[in-house]
Amino acid sequence: MSPRTQHPLAPATPVREATRLPRIKDCTVVLAVVLSLSPVPLRAETKPPFGGPSSHEPHTGSAPLNPVRSVRVAVPPGGEKDADIALPVLTVTRRGMTGTDPVPGLVARISATGTKTDTPLIAVPQAVSVIPRAQIDQQAARSVGDSVRYTPGVFADTRIGGVLESVFLRGFGGFAAGATNPQVLDGLPLVKGGNWAAQVIDPSTLERVEVLRGPASVLYGQASPGGIVAMVSKRPTEQPFGAVTLTSGNRNRAEAAFDIGGPIGDDGSLAYRLNGLGRRVDTQVDFSREQRVVLAPTLAWRPDEDTSLTLLGFYQNDPHNNFSGWLPAEGTLFPNPAGRIRRSFFPGEPGFDAYDRQQAMIGYAVEHRFDATWTVRQNLRYAHIDTRFEGAAVNFFAPFGATSRLLERSASWSREAVDGLSLDNQAQADFATGPIAHTLLFGLGYQGSRADTDASGFGPVPPIDFAAPVYGRPFAVPPAAPRTRQDWNRVGLYAQDQMRLDRWVLTIGGRQDWSFLDTANRLSARNSQQDDAAFTGRVGATYLFDGGLAPYASYATSFEPTLGTTFAGAPFKPTHARQTEAGVKYQPPGLESFFAVSGFDITQDNVSTADPAHPFYKVQTGAVRSRGIELEARATLSDSLDLIGAYTYLDTTVSRDSNPALVGKRFVSVPDQLVSLWANYRFPGGPLAGLSLAGGIRAIGRSAGDPANSFSVPAVTLVDAAIRYELGAADPGLAGWQVSVNAANLFDRTSVASCFAAGGCFYGNGRTVIASLGYRW
User: Fold this and answer.
1) Reported pTM
2) Which of 153, 168, 313, 371 makes an SS bond possible with 173, Cβ 3.0 to 4.6 Å?
3) Residues contacting 364, CB < 8 A, separation 6+
4) Are residues 654 and 171 in contact, defined by beta-carbon separation less than 8 angstroms?
5) Domain architecture of the chain: domains with CATH
6) How far apart are CA 236 and CA 233, in angstroms?
7) Kind and range of the H or E element at 550?
8) How confident is the model at residue 683 (pLDDT cuts 50, 70, 90)?
9) Which residue, among 417, 418, 420, has the nearest Cα to 381 in the 3D structure?
10) Over 60: is that where the pLDDT of 66 sits?
11) Euclidean distance between CA atoms 699 and 695, whole angstroms
12) Among candidates 422, 434, 439, 432, which has minimal Cα distance to 184?
């Protein structure tokens, strides 16, 4: 939505309301005195600033959903004739919250992820959580998965390492090719290859991380029924600033980062931002480390109050990383008379295992407002990914005796290069039909990608003794099996109408998607084609009570293409899912807080299951169901205390499968409950002024260890802590300097994070300590 247009879901803002000044830290005030001997009528003009710190009015049931950004009070032409002294202008410049703006503190009120328009969170008929930059910094998150740990409905602590980010949303997710990754950046889907070429975005470049839980296909096309993780990049600001940070920690961590930006020129129409990072850290697994270099330049141009153009660049290089593989349940989850498998044990081959990834993206977001009704937007991004994977992994399907020390292993490798183009065209109309206010959105989306893949099958590797490992024994590297080129084109046409009648907000949307996949095998010279189409929709209603209470209910559907064919050669159909959700959101006016409770029921059909008549093939006869309850609380209770709390209850079951023994079983790796609480306290004055103390608890419930539910991964509770000190509080000459120490899993508890089979379990991360020294100006 245009930052210059008031959201039509609310009544117009009266001039007297718009001219109220927010807190000084959230606005820029330029005053000129007008002295007159006779009354002079006032004229209000909107004059949005370029960007920068945000503020907004607390929302009530009758308050505007998107307030006026600025007011300019001036003497009208000819009015100065009656004035003894007339200084020309009283200008109050005020930045309203949009879906890409920085969030002041920990509590957001506006998001664009759930509707693609700048809509208050309490008016979206679906669960949406916003993790702002302040929370990412407080918790020293080093991955997007780290950022969403304290979010309901999300399980991201699935394994060690940050090579690939795998998250489970409302029970839906997986590992490797079946993983659900953070998949939307600045409103556009990220590109992904077939194996290891998945984009991972460093959170140092992000302003927000947002989680839309439940089906999102009506706006974003193919998506997991559990929801999406959407990221918002940092943007240029109207005020010049800079920040540098040096970081160290355990496991030989060394890191440096910078973030600078501000206006270019004197007219304020052009601004830039540049942030970057370099990192090297060992993991808790022997012979395994993570390295990263990130550079993200952005340039924004606003030639007038109705037009804006933002260029966004991104480069990330992750060289010399290792994949920390899975281990058997015997010796990790269960006792083994031969001894426990060390958390630091590396099951691969140091001279062979590697994972390298390079990503580059360039794109833009352009917006133009034609008049009070029509606004058009276009978002475009080109992305390129190069990955190299080589790994020796434990055979998770091989039998492993309770007294054995030898682990059977296999090796594989792949090389992938993916080029992708994402485009989203939007036309938004804000108007009224009688007493009903509308925000009508039309969109045409396109995503095209070409993936060139060279990959091997699995080849044998000499077994390894986990108690006394010997590395470097010779083995034959498996030859290339498939060498493929995949061209995948997806087109989506969608429409959405947000209607407000008095206190009711009705949201209706529909989308038609087409998917065209062409695969060429360069070894066998055989080509295949798979075309799919699907229609998805959403309908939801919200009632806005006075006082910020908003009950809602919605129904939404989603789809995901399924690659592959049956034994008979018939291409698989897309999976389809449907969700019913109801809940209550509460955001009281005058308080920086947000509370929500939601209940949902998701059913997914056309799930692939084993073909009982033809081993190694699948049939689409399966169905699964996920039901649950989620609670979320965010509040800044005073200038000193922040609280974040979340609770999730999940009941996931297989409702239909080709193997009757699996019907009624729980989803693999999905905890039945998740509880988290984070508190941050800033000492307001006295000898401890400038000091902040924070702590968090994450309780992860029991999960099924394999599809047959033959064993479970037990529940675990982890503790996080942080301390931060502003040095300027002790010495004004050190203003801008800050030192902080964060510890995740403070008590270094050893636990198994998840399992997908008896031979496939992942240890959780041990204690991670991060100490930073930063300077801001």
Assistant:
1) 0.87
2) 168
3) 309, 310, 311, 312, 378, 379, 380, 381
4) no
5) 1-96 (no CATH), 227-352+363-776 (2.40.170.20)
6) 10
7) strand 549-560
8) very high
9) 420
10) no
11) 14
12) 422
